[in-house]
Amino acid sequence: MDAVVWIVLGVLLAVAEIFTTTLFLIMFGVGAFAAAGAAALGAPVAVQALVFAVVSALSLVVVRPVIRRHSRSALESGEQPFGVEAIEGSTALVLERVDAEQGLVKIDGELWSARSYDTTQVYDPGQRVRVIKVRGATALVWQDDVSSAGELPESRG
């Protein structure tokens, strides 16, 4: 019966981690599953609690930093970016008017739906813009001519 309680706790912690994505609760979930294993082997409740505490602590101290280090973006780690990270910062050609609601741009030969990063700006076909961020399949773009922009969007308050 103790093993079932630990398994249920482990599953609840794993599900809660899905909503937090901090890699914190999952480490306690691993500890709960380890305690369930100890319970299945017939260990007393005190030993189960000790297994839970030790495995959770070791997971937090040893495993979590390794996972976080490997999950850093390519830009943060200095590696060559790929996928969406490679698109952010590149220039795009406006094909259909881009405003706060809709638009179409061409990035490295691919068509992307786009919206203006600054909701007050509108970009007409033929203009060059810079991809600031990608949300889903939509590129958020900003005017490419930095000298006339006055400031970059990252420095805006």
TrEMBL record:
Membrane topology: Multi-pass membrane protein
Highest taxon, organism lineage: Bacteria
Keywords: Hydrolase, Membrane, Protease, Transmembrane, Transmembrane helix
Transmembrane residue ranges: 7-35, 41-63
Origin species: Micromonospora arida
GO CC, any one term: plasma membrane
Domain NfeD-like C-terminal: 85-142
GO MF terms, alphabetically ordered: peptidase activity
Swiss-Prot/TrEMBL GO biological process terms: proteolysis
Protein known as: Activity regulator of membrane protease YbbK
Cellular compartment(s): Membrane
Keyword Iron-sulfur: no
